[in-house]
Amino acid sequence: MSNNPQDPLLLDHEYDGIRELDNKLPRWWVWLFCITIAFAAVYLVYYHVLKIGPLSAGEYAAEMQAGEQLKASAMGKFEAGIPGLHPSSDPVILENGRQTYAKFCAPCHRADGGGLVGPNLTDDYWIHGSNYCDTVTVIWNGVPAKGMITWKATLKPDEIQAVASYIYTLRGASLATPGKPPENQAPVKAAPSGFE
């Protein structure tokens, strides 16, 4: 009970000169609190007892599976289209390819394409094929046996096309310092067919 008859809401106890008021909570707050308790009970029964709805982990697994299917579909379409690809000559795409090359490829192939750990990209001695589609395929699948990772998990298909287009422009470039020596045979030129 309050010691002060003029203030009946004050309780008897105090702490550091602070006394507690015996106010009732607003009705809307009490109803909201009761609703949250009821919701928690329904949630518990629905998700944990009856297991009608998926838990967060189940929803995550379903979303990951749907995402993997979309990714596999997109990659399948991209891989199917590789033989018909041609290098881009669009300056914006080539600049994007140059930036991607500088970020991911230059540590192994040198900024000018002369080759360090990876092969020289400026000569005609290409190890895994010398045309544009071969370059896209090598970037896409990587060469794990030689330490080149597959970039299809890191780069988007348009980024791979952009960097392959940029690499295509490096062929025949003159280097300020000598590049890595040839590592394969030069491409065999087709014999004339006589129908020229």
Q: How far is it from the N-terminal to the C-terminal residue, by CA?
A: 113 Å
CATH architecture of the domain at 87-170: Orthogonal Bundle
Low confidence ranges: none
- CATH level-4 homologous superfamily of the domain at 87-170: Cytochrome c-like domain
CATH class group of the domain at 87-170: Mainly Alpha
The whole-number mean of residue pLDDT values reads 83
Helix content: 40-55%
> Which descriptor suits the 3D outline?
elongated
Strand and helix order: EEHHHHH
- The assembly state of the depicted protein chains is single chain
CATH topology of the domain at 87-170: Cytochrome Bc1 Complex, Chain D, domain 2
- In percent terms, what proportion of residues is strand? 5-15%
Number of strands: 2
Separate helix tally: 5
Write down the Rg: 34 Å
